[in-house]
Amino acid sequence: MKVIVVGSSHGGFEAVREILADRPDAEIQWYEKGDFLSFLSCGMQLYLEGIVKNVNDVSYATPEGMRAQGVSVFTETEVTAVDAKQHSVYIVDHKNGQKREEQYDKLILSPGATPATLPVAGNDLKNIYAMRGRDWAIKLKERTVDPEINNVVVIGAGYIGIEAAETFAKAGKHVTVVDMLPRLLAKYLDEELTDIVTKEMEKHDIKAAPGQAIKKFVGKDGHVTQVITDQATYPADLVIVATGIKPNTKWLSGIVDLDDHGMIKVDDQQRTSADDIYAVGDATLVKFAPTNGTKSPIALATNARRQGRIAGKNAVGNAAKTPLVSGSSALSVFKYKFASTGIKEGTAAQFNLETKSTLVTDTFRPSFVTDENGNDKVWFKLTYDPQTTRILGAQILSTQDVTQNINTISLAIQAKLTLSDLAYADFFFQPGFDRPWNIMNVGAQQALRDLEKNK
């Protein structure tokens, strides 16, 4: 059996791993258009802040290591077209310009996505950067130590934008974060928690500019100098655009079915509309567990990796189904660490769901443990269906790392647990670690009391 895998980020990497595990006798060809295998953009902040010293270490695989396992690895080599009927792909080797055709038995596509650009005047000025991929990581690293860069404007207040803002604030730059939404991190946290995080960012010379639309970029001598919104003008020696991504799928039009946004349509086995072709990663939708399978664009490494494994299994004949996901994620912003999963109070409307939320606060450890010994405040917000009491989502924030609680809530969502299931669920207690009642117990117990009061 010959399997061709296109793309080397999370989804493609996991597909190759799964095929190696399930069918070690299979012939695997792995193609990457860029000059570097399996760069992980989610690790970029660690490199930019010097926690990881070598940009080449931000990867899970090397060509040499994969070739040693029997995989034929091709970098700077692009699959430019697919003939689904003939089970063949057309390839360009960018190192020497040579072209060739390869046959496959199974084809797994992990084409990924590209950073979205802003269609406004001045978007071609120099020093307007993205924050995705190894090439941009190297360029951004240079700018963190560039004495000519003093004012940085980040456009987009999602995870990538906030990571960029923190990185450049730590590098001593004045940072402004602009977003069209009314709050920073609005897709991930509700207002009570974004208020806390925003105040923390302001302490570190990051100015929040939410609820604003970009009108144009202004420059001098070909370099950006200002960002103009519908409400204000901000000085800018560097602009980082982090306004989302768009699927890299134009070249697949007419080969596999795409939706109105260019996303590849796949079934529960990651199969496309074309025989023996599978697709994974940011160019596909996932099924959202809180809504029992609504297809949603949730671009997370965890989802791509899961899809890659499932595609790999099915490609070699081991039937498997991609599970529903909760959309769990986490981030640290200076001293705060937070995580969220599922539906929030602020995102319920887009799913046309009636929800109720309960916010509780507690200390990390029992009251006899002093603040100096790490007994910090914890905020936990639980979202649920007020009729069935099914758990639909949660958020947690603290200066202590309590983020792993969200993995438990993610499992509760997938298992369709209710508030009663969680209220007295069995979690360990040891005063060096936590409180007698886990914060999740506390949240569920309070939610039940809130519902009882409203009867």
UniProtKB/TrEMBL annotation:
Family: Belongs to the class-III pyridine nucleotide-disulfide oxidoreductase family.
Record-level Gene Ontology MF annotations: peroxidase activity
Gene3D superfamilies attached to this UniProt entry: 3.30.390.30, FAD/NAD(P)-binding domain (3.50.50.60)
Keyword Nucleotide-binding applies: no
InterPro entries: FAD-bd_OxRdtase, FAD/NAD-bd_sf, FAD/NAD-binding_dom, FAD/NAD-linked_Rdtase_dimer_sf, Pyr_nucl-diS_OxRdtase_dimer
Name used for this protein in its record: NADH peroxidase
Domain called Pyridine nucleotide-disulphide oxidoreductase dimerisation: residue spans: 332-434
Any Pfam family matching the protein: Pyr_redox_2
Species the sequence originates in: Ligilactobacillus acidipiscis DSM 15836
UniProt keyword list: FAD, Flavoprotein, Oxidation, Oxidoreductase, Peroxidase, Redox-active center
All residue ranges annotated as the FAD/NAD(P)-binding domain in the record: 1-308
Taxonomy, superkingdom: Bacteria
Known cofactor(s): FAD
